[in-house]
């Protein structure tokens, strides 16, 4: 038992359609400096270098930080406030149950049980928190 397979190739000729160049896009503005924004007008059809602006993540600690506000874009030193985490109250309740009333104070003197929040002193916008 043998099967024969034949293949047929067809070539189709298409008419050449003249290609018109596309219209250039309109000019747009690029901001290059986040701290002191100055617009740069980019004209279409002209070669330009591409500028990529990346924000570096800021890790906030217990001390005020020197950052650029995400809301008012000013260079600021953050205003900090510290408050107890919810885990401190849970741990205090567990210690009270297991060790008596004498152990309740322990979570309230541990630095790891506090969170420090950072706000902009100019516009009061939240900037970040330490955990």
TrEMBL record:
Domain of life: Eukaryota
Keywords from the UniProt entry: Membrane, Metal-binding, Transmembrane, Transmembrane helix, Zinc
Record's keyword annotation contains Transport: no
Boundaries of every LITAF domain copy: 48-131
Segments traversing the membrane: 88-108
Gene Ontology CC terms, in alphabetical order: cytoplasmic side of late endosome membrane; cytoplasmic side of lysosomal membrane; nucleus
Protein's cellular compartments: Endosome membrane; Late endosome membrane; Lysosome membrane
One annotated GO molecular function: zinc ion binding
Statement: the UniProt record of this protein carries the keyword Metal-binding: yes
PROSITE patterns from the UniProt entry: LITAF
Membrane topology: Peripheral membrane protein
Name recorded for this polypeptide: Lipopolysaccharide-induced tumor necrosis factor-alpha factor homolog
Native source organism of the sequence: Phallusia mammillata
Lineage, opening ranks: Eukaryota, Metazoa, Chordata, Tunicata, Ascidiacea
Gene assigned in the entry: Litaf-002
């Amino acid at each position: 038992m043998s099967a024969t397979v034949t293949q047929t190739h067809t070539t189709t000729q298409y008419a050449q359609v003249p290609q018109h160049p596309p219209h250039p896009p309109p000019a747009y503005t690029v901001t290059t400096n986040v701290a002191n924004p100055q617009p740069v007008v980019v004209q279409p059809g002209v070669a330009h270098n591409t500028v990529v602006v990346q924000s570096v993540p800021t890790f906030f600690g217990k001390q005020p930080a020197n950052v650029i506000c995400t809301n008012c874009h000013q260079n600021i030193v953050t205003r900090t406030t510290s408050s107890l985490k919810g885990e401190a109250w849970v741990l205090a309740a567990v210690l009270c149950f297991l060790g008596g009333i004498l152990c309740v104070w322990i979570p309230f003197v541990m630095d790891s049980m506090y969170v420090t929040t950072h706000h902009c002193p100019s516009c009061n916008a939240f900037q970040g928190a330490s955990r």
